[in-house]
Specification:
It is built from 10 helices and 4 strands. It is mainly alpha-helical and about 325 residues long. Strands 1-2 form a two-stranded antiparallel sheet. Strands 3-4 form a two-stranded antiparallel sheet. It is globular and about 60 Å long. The two termini are about 25 Å apart.
Length: about 325
Amino acid sequence: MEKKIYGGVVFSLEIVTMAKEKEKPKDIPGYMKFIIGGGAGMTGTLFVQPLDLVKNRMQLSGVGTAKKEYTSSFDAISKIFRTEGPLAFYNGLSAGLLRQATYSSTRLGVYTWLFSYMSSPDGTPPTFLKKTLMGCLAGLCGAFVGTPAEVALIRMTADGKLPPEERRNYANVFSALGRITREEGILTLWRGVMPTMGRAVVVNAVQLATYSQAKEMFMKTGYFNEGIFLHFCSSMLSGFFTTIASLPLDIAKTRIQNMKMHEGKPEYRGTFDVIYKLTKNEGIFALWKGFTPYFARIGPHTVLTFIFLEQYTNLYKKYFMKEN
């Protein structure tokens, strides 16, 4: 057997080869993590776009009027259906898909890459604290990249509630981005980027970390195996905690991105100004206005995104990472 000497210690080439084989298993290429993440988010959006529209309408209910347009989520659904038709629930779909193509591809790509990088050579995952910090960083990156599509999405889903003469009538997300740039300046595409990034830090710190941690905890019970049922339970738990933690910031983000100028001055000065005015004028519970559609949207979207993420990952490994 061929041998080599390293620092006075004799190693056989066979042992060195075996040691290398025990290193981290072959991982998916970094760029594919971003593609798979974006694909998972976009697939989930196809199912939950109507809930996203209702959530946005609920959060904007009462803005610029003497009374709320909708008394509940079901009232909103009923009125939108009667006055705008069933297809109105998919207003802004192109913006929703572009948002996922930018936001989800970045956040999930960054997180899955960091998760692999921070895992130990024997496959032991990072600690919960590290997962949380990784989620924060992933959220910051994703939010910055996805804010332009987010601004277009908010405006397109809110357009139907405006009087006909005030509607923006964007044809699609690219029309929205082009007109916003020409009429209001390119920086308007990043209006509300700070509350968006703040929300994204909370959402991704909670959502990504709790999903990964829940999977580990469920697996340790011995009642779960790797599969769709495990992914479903983990993502539902993740979605519930994410809803509670992020909804106030989501409302602030939505109102800032949809606001108009009054006498040359913005309606809100920032996230805390929105929260202050909201609690002062509408009460503390207004911070969780639209909880039902928000959870109904973020819960299924969390479930679908993680299920598709896992399935697309497995498919890639099965068909493109076969051992020679």
